[in-house]
Each structure stands twice: as structure tokens, then as C-alpha cells.
Amino acid sequence: MPVSKAHATWYGDIPSGAGDFTAGDSITGGVTYKSRFEGGPGSNPEQLIGAAHATCFSMALAGALADAGFPAESIETTASVTLRPVDGVPTITKIELVTEGEVPGVGADQFREFADSAKANCPVGRALSGVPEVTLRATLAGG
Length: 143
Description:
Strand content: 35-45%
Strand order of the largest sheet: 1-2-3
Structural class: alpha+beta
Number of helices: 4
Shape: elongated
Distance between the termini: 37 Å
CATH architecture of the largest domain: 2-Layer Sandwich
CATH class of the largest domain: Alpha Beta
């Protein structure tokens, strides 16, 4: 498997400086203190973690469903990443995954079982195992 790469540069001090990043061939963005810690415009690392987790989870769920004979028409996942001070240090304390699938032939309970398994087994989720709280709400479209 290929090695995935990203690059970041920070210019200046933290309160007034700024940074930029690239990931792969097409993802770029900028980050500032305000975008990371005050909800200002721009990007932040936690958004990138959320995007990675939502994407990985959705792929793992779609793969498991397809392997069981339930190919998904769509899996839509949102990851909300919470950053809070812990002992004075900014720390990711919670990730909330909310997913909705359009999957013909699968029941709601079955879908939640597949989603729980995907949460436990997607590579990004496993890498984030140190986050104290990772929640999942999984529903079928129209259900």
C-alpha cells in the first residue's frame, strides 16, 4: 500500500502567525490561531482529522455491507471533533460520528451492527483510539 503524505508550514508566533498545509495532490488550506481555537474562518487540524475519520468510517461501512451482500447506494457521515483544554493543554476529547445509509435490503438493527463494526475497525478510528469518547449514531435513510 502507498504511504500517504501531508506537509505543513507555520510562520511566526502562535497568536499572530499563520500556517498552510497540503495533503495529497489536491487538499490545501490555511490555519490561524483564530481558525483553530476561536472558531474563526479558515481550517484547522481537527477538521482534517474529522474528514479523515468520516471518510475512513464510510468506506469501511460500505465495504462490510457489500461483503455481506448489501451494496450501499450511499453512506453519508459527519464527524464532529471536540477540542478542549485538559490540564491546560488543548486535547481532542470527543469525536461524534453521525452516519446515514441508503442500503436496500438491510434492516435498521443490522445496519447499526455493521456501523458498530466499522467504527471499531476502520484504520483511522483505530489510530484515534486514544480519544476518550467516540460516539456513533447510525440510521438508515427514511428510517
